[in-house]
Amino acid sequence: MSTTRMPNPAMLINGAIEALMGVNKAIAGTGLDGKLLALSHLRASQINSCSPCVAGGVHQARQHGLTDDQVHAVAAWRETPWFSDEERAALALTEAVTRLADNADAVPDQVWDVAAKYFDQAELAALLLNIAITNAFNRLNVPTRQQAGQW
After folding, report:
1. Per residue in 16-40, is it b (16+ CB within 10 Å) or e — as a string?
2. Which CATH number fits domain 9-141: 3.60.10.10, 3.30.1380.10, 1.20.1290.10, 3.20.20.190?
């Protein structure tokens, strides 16, 4: 793959990166477990093949106490014993919201209802914002070929 096409667009527009980071700060301030936010960020970034966000997600996951087994198995979370039901609900919601165009019913009731069983509306809002901001960063990094480790 070729090198970076241009700097991250959020760095080129005055105030954009600060605004995006402000959303991240607001999400972190909700009190939703950082481990869940890290898992969600890592899984969405894996789906979107965003190398800087995958690398950052691994770092974030370790900071929040995820084990090596968990970090290495995020992409195969359904087939492993290392995730709680709450974590699985967050991962399923993350996948559905990240892959909106893949299904006629983008976020099926079954996925939503399981998530709503574990998270109240404020926590669901934090999780959905986390998925959205992760996807925004992925959609800025991937087309401009941002590289992991080159910040």
Report:
1. eeeebeeebeebeeeebebbbbbbb
2. 1.20.1290.10
